[in-house]
Amino acid sequence: MRRRAFPLLVLLAAACVQPTATDPVTGQAYYSPIGNDYASQDAYIRLNHITQRAMANDGGELPEPELKAACLVIFNRIASVVPPAHRRDFKYTLYLSASPQINAYTYGGGRVHCHLGLLARCKDDAEFATLVAHEIGHNSHDHVGQSLGRASIQSSIAGLGGIAGRPGRVLAGSFGGLVAGFVSPSYSKEQERQADDLAVDYALAAGYDAEGAARFFEGLERDFGRQSGFFQTHPSPRNRVRRIHQRIRANGGVPRDAIRSSPEFQSAVRRAREILVYYEDLYRALSGDDRKAVLRAADRGIAELPQHAQFHFWKGIALQDQGKQEASRDSLRNAERLDRTNLMIPLVHGLLEFQAENWAEAERSFDRLLSILDDMPGPLVLRGVCRLKQGKKEQAYGDFDSALADTPKRRQRALYAQIRKYAPEYVYDPDGSS
């Protein structure tokens, strides 16, 4: 009798559902493709360049050191009270991004991202404290690992995809592929409730008024209704507010001397609101795909916030669209000088210079990009072409070798064919000699 073979799909699914980790807070077992310790998650984040892609997706880091310092006082105070069993060996990091969206998120490893739009909505220290405590709570439960585990199980059966977007259609086709590696985790309602519970616990332990999150949700719903972008990625506020109050009562209530507001954070919020006006103006123009409106908004932003790279960046794009290449180049150079961590700026600058066959300028921008993401095959090939066009054959072939070495074997043939269009004499030798 012939033995019936198990379908590969069933075997994969069965392998995925085996528990490999335990929730540090609840003790519940779950499957995760990454460990729930800091070293494993940090390695995963670094290998996939998640922080760099997240910041590019969010418009870059907010260049306001005094504002960030005020936020770090609160963030570090919350992080300091996380119990060792919840903390494991995590190193908590706060990023403030230039996005006007009202949002905050984490992708593990203790990294928490907060948008300018959310910070400007906070009325006091307590609101901000409970919101960042919520994101730290996701790390304590390792909800990122649990969500990745669910995604792995689903993808073994049906396939899973997603891409974090950004406003504006001016260059959507040019940079979407490089940002596609960042997929923001999606949490279940139960996971959000668990993070809310820990937010209350951590806020109270750090001495803050834990009613802050409830006030934030109520204010957001009052001002924007359920249409707020925040509620598209987070549960309905009413049940959350009720649960927050219940959790506070279970903890004995909010002490009379709990911190609610401080002059330092109030100053930070005022500054955030001043800045937000210019970013909202820019993003409205981008969403309308009106190049002239983008240029006007960028000029207003540069006049008031000359150290903010995003306004120089989008001015450069608008000028390029008007055929003003030299002025565009100056603006994009300014953007690169001001923000050396946002991969989007050198990527787009390099692509524009490549299209214009300005090989030396394009090479310089790809150098900057590869200092941020050093193992991206696409930029390596583009830089190699730039070098080849300038007679730097040995360096160009080195870039092509590196690009192919960093490409999965199933895709090497297609990439090799693309390279040969520019360099017909190039021969790839995986042993290192072209």
What report would you give on this structure?
It contains 22 helices and 5 strands. A hairpin with a 6-residue loop joins strand 1 (21-22) and strand 2. The chain folds into 2 domains: 8-250, no CATH class; 278-422, Tetratricopeptide repeat domain (Serine Threonine Protein Phosphatase 5, Tetratricopeptide repeat), CATH 1.25.40.10. It is globular and about 75 Å long. A 3-stranded mixed sheet has the order 3-5-4. Strands 1-2 form a two-stranded antiparallel ribbon. It has 434 residues and is mainly α. The chain is 63% helix and 4% strand. The model is unreliable at 1-16 and 152-183 (pLDDT under 50). Helix 11 runs antiparallel to helix 13 and helix 16 packs antiparallel against helix 17.
Strand order, largest beta sheet: 3-5-4
Helices and strands, in order, run as HEEHHHHEEEHHHHHHHHHHHHHHHHH
Structural class, by secondary structure, is mainly alpha
- Helix proportion of residues, in percent? 55-70%
Beta-strand percentage? under 5%
Number of individual domains: 2
What's the N-to-C terminus distance? 54 Å
Shape: globular
Please tally the helical runs, counting DSSP H or I stretches of 4 or more residues. Answer: 22
Key terms:
434 residues; mainly alpha; 22 helices; globular; disordered N terminus
